[in-house]
Amino acid sequence: MTTSQPVVLGELPSLSKLYVNAATTAARRRVLGASAGQHTLPTVSHEVRNIRADVENLTAYQHLVGETASDILPAGYVHALAFPVSMSVMNRDDFPLPLLGMIHLKNYVEQRVPITFSEALDIRSWAENLAGHKSGTQLDIVAEVRSSTNGGLLWRGISTYLAKGVFLPGIDKPGGANGATAPTDFSPPNPTGLWHLGLETGRSYATVSGDFNPIHLSVLSAKALGLRGSIAHGMYLASRALADVGAVKADSFTWNVAFEAPVFLPARVAVDIATVQSGSGSWERSDYVAWNARSGRRHFTGSVAALG
Fold first, then answer.
1. Model confidence over 189-244: pLDDT tens digits?
2. Are 146 and 47 within one domain?
3. 177 within some domain
4. Structural domain that includes position 147
5. For the chain, what is the HEC assignment?
6. pLDDT tens, 121-173?
């Protein structure tokens, strides 16, 4: 998708304010209905410049997801840093889908080079690939992180979201489960790890990421949005799996995750990480899968691979 010149924001947007605005917009749309013509994605991008990571916040993030303390920003932390800019795009008045209730289907990240906490960053985000899904309408939110010094691309992420139950005029409903991992038979392997996630998990991740989406914070706030209980953030789960892959991964890598079933809190999540080595014995790829330790239901799958 070709976007026009970016809308340069004066500062990193506040996610809490964006959620409040999204709730207000949702209420207005319920009363007035979506206005005619709001069936295409905005052709603008949003950008913030000269952003630096907060060391205290970085340390708290690393501790929460199990990353080793380091001056290098974990790929999941970079996603959290860019997320407010992406959210501001989805919060625009001309964005055709409701922000609240969006389901995170999958994520793809390219970590081009290691990013140190002291580096000044420019973050740009936009929406593209509006498409039909058997359960509603999906789209991709793209975020790019570049060096403020020389403009070099450091990190790129594509998050695919589903607006369940929202079918826009002119967008055909496909025959398959577009954008989602096709269900397959799953026999849980012997786990390499077991996560014990308490009710506070959603609030803890919200504190370090700024993502205070009500579906993650408490049973009551989640039920208000139609869920039977609070669920863990998808990127918390994916970031924890990335941390479990560990230091074996290369400096430059791709990182995929596809979500299948939410993790309702509290939970016991079993994880299996399998490492593939090249013919020379060096690390090539790590595949991971996570499932409900009690029921055996698969929650998500993914991989981390060397970026060629």
1. 999 999 999 999 999 999 999 998 889 999 999 998 888 999 999 999 999 999 99
2. yes
3. no
4. 1-172
5. CCCCCCEECCCCCCHHHHHHHHHHHHHHHHHHCCCCCCCCCCCCCEEEEEECCCHHHHHHHHHHHCCCCCCECCHHHHHHHHHHHHHHHHCCCCCCCCCCCCEEEEEEEEECCCCECCCCEEEEEEEEEEEEECCEEEEEEEEEEEECCCCCEEEEEEEEEEEECCCCCCCCCCCCCCCCCCCCCCCCCCCCEEEEECCCHHHHHHHHHCCCCHHHCCHHHHHCCCCCCCECCHHHHHHHHHHHHHHHCCCCEEEEEEECCCCECCEEEEEEEEEEECCCCCEEEEEEEEEECCCCCEEEEEEEEECC
6. 999 999 999 999 999 999 999 999 999 999 999 999 999 999 998 999 878 76
